[in-house]
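On clarity, I found the account of how folds are encoded harder to follow than it need be. Since the whole study asks how a given chain folds, the encoding of that fold should be made plain. For illustration, here is how one protein appears when written out as sequence plus structure tokens:

:::
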Amino acid sequence: MKAALKTADGRFTIEEVEEPTLPAANWVKARLRMAGICGTDLRHWKKPDEHLHCCIVGHEMAGEVVEVGADVTHVAVGDRVLIESVLGCGACEWCRIQQYNRCPDLYPTRRASVSRAYAEFLVGPQHKFYKLPDTIGYDDAALLDTYAVCLHAQHLSGLTINAKVAIIGAGPIGLGQLMLAKASGADVLIIDTVAHSLDLARELGADETINTSTDDAVQAIRAMTDGRGADIVFECAGGESMPRTLPLATRLVRRGGKLVIVGGFDEGEIAIPLEWQRIQMSEITLIPSASFAFHDIYPEQGEVLQLVARGKLKTQKLITHRFPLDRINEAFDVAQDKERTGAIFVGLEI
């Protein structure tokens, strides 16, 4: 099959590689049709990562079932499917209680099968495949990994109706967080430095938008909340911006409020100075949020699929660019240079 393999310098080369086979009777094989480029992928773009060299990566995807094992009952050949890529070892304490996003072996496990979106085929256990309604296209479905990340963060936050919310970052995760908060009855201020992203945030229902290149976000949230600050702040930018956005998030949240850290960090020890005395004296709760799994008895990936099907979450407004897999390097450049290109969600047609 055709696949995009990571190179030594962090780009991609298109190669012919061996097509995966079903390793067990309850596994499924899919022909991929659409894959997304997310912030995690971009943090590794043009950066040497020895552990990813010659690997297939990518974890936002949808496709068509082409083969099923003898014990598969959830899906059938020909079904259009969303494929969940958060797959733990299945044996540890966390996996046994459906907290597989906390699995110690999460990344090696998922990279071996379902977290290989930039290729023509992949295989995975049947419970990671969700049938798509006729109203949801492959491109819509490729956004649903992102939305499940947002839903998990909202579940951790305890957000309720009439909450005053600030969101830092108006990329796909920040915009997904916005739509979920608005659907739950919150008032939302969203913050970014990219004008076209803030324009879309207003279209999607943001009550206030702030471009921190020109305006003061702390002053704006205080004006919106009678001087108190936000009940909940979601940091959705992450990556290289975290040394700026995480301290800002702690200044936006009110006394007794919550800060949910959704944006990702790079590996290793990272020193980010914070006003710890004020955080402690104000009893501000810091909540790290990682990927998604189950909420009570419900898989969060399945929940966002239902929300899109019911029109609670929008997709098409976020999809700004589509490229064939052969042009994956160009697609990554476009996704990274969003201020120039107007990119929000960039999809790869496979």
